[in-house]
Amino acid sequence: MAFLRNFFGLQSFFSFFNPQNTLFKDVFLNVPTALSITDENGIIQYVNKAFMNLTGYTSDELIGKNHSMLKSFKNEPDFFKHFWEKLLRDNSFSGNIWNQHKDTYHALHCITITSITLDKNYYLSTHIDVTEEIELQERHHYLAYHDPHTGLANRSLFEDRLSHAINNASRIGHSIGVLFCDLNEFKQINDEYGHATGDEVLKIVAQRLNSFFRSNDTVARFGGDEFVIIVEHLEDDTQLSRMAQSLALKIAKPMSELNLSVSACIGIASFPQDGLTKDQLLNIADAKMYDDKNRFYGLVS
């Protein structure tokens, strides 16, 4: 639409819009942006080549059909209610919409719709496929807050959620817990079996952690073989220690797919009993984990 406005000027384009105008046909059909024109009921009147390429349909398959033939189930349930409200109120619409290609795959289109009044009302729409662009943005956002190897939250997301959990706990008056988990002799696994096997161990441990905790808890990988968990809404003073014991047993179960097993040392800290800030809770849980690690290696009685 921006191209047409710049090329013609909006009013000039409206007067230029005439299906019998040869120059109009040439420009409309060949402009690289996908264009469609519908009547006020959404019935397609004209499409250009770029629009046909974008949707996979021929002009014969599109013209005379309602534009809704392209809509995808991936749109939010109330999307079209708001869409029509804005279009009828403002005589225009700009935004992203999921459409379905003839070959059944779904694509996210950035669309701009403008009302044209001639013998009756029409709508001129531009469509740009932004699926790959949006997916890339989402991927970059995901990687900014998740460990790419296990899919768990990374340290940045974990600390943000821990701060949020502390604020909620302070306001509501309940307790939360932090578990700091470190695998034992993980370097030996890498050295003996190779880093590929070590990577699989980390993935299996991540899966076991995810299955152990509730969906509203946060499981994160800090790096290496360190995993940290936020447990929301502790029920009593002993829940966290009982969870740590059960978790250690779950992690230590043999990994049949790799024919090996690994154990873990776990330190715990609870808010507000052990600390009132994010750093205090992490430092205490980390220190207790190292106490457990020293006992594992027989360094303390």
Write the layout of secondary structure elements.
Elements: H1 2-8, H2 10-16, H3 22-30, E1 34-39, E2 44-47, H4 49-55, H5 59-62, H6 79-90, E3 92-100, E4 106-117, E5 121-129, H7 131-145, H8 155-172, E6 176-183, H9 186-193, H10 195-212, E7 218-223, E8 226-231, H11 239-252, E9 264-271, H12 278-296
Antiparallel strand pairs: 1-2, 1-5, 3-4, 4-5, 6-8, 6-9, 7-8
Helix pairs in contact: 1-2, 9-10
Measured as a percent range, the helix fraction is 40-55%
Computed CA radius of gyration, to the nearest angstrom: 29 Å
Q: State the CATH topology of the largest domain.
A: Alpha-Beta Plaits
Distance between the termini: 77 Å
Q: CATH superfamily name of the largest domain?
A: Reverse transcriptase/Diguanylate cyclase domain
Number of extended strands: 9
Stretches where pLDDT falls below 50 for ≥5 residues? 1-16
Secondary-structure element order, as H and E? HHHEEHHHEEEHHEHHEEHEH
- Largest sheet, spatial ordering of strands: 2-1-5-4-3
CATH architecture type of the largest domain: 2-Layer Sandwich
Q: What percentage of amino acids are in beta strands?
A: 15-25%
Decide which structural class fits the backbone: alpha+beta
Question: How many domains, in number, for the residues?
Answer: 2
Task: Describe what you observe in this structure.
- The protein is an alpha+beta fold and 301 residues long.
- It has two domains: 2-135, PAS domain (Beta-Lactamase); 146-296, Reverse transcriptase/Diguanylate cyclase domain (Alpha-Beta Plaits, 2-Layer Sandwich), CATH 3.30.70.270.
- It is built from twelve helices and nine strands.
- It has a five-stranded antiparallel sheet. The protein has a four-stranded antiparallel sheet with strand order 7-8-6-9, sandwiched between helices.
- The termini are far apart.
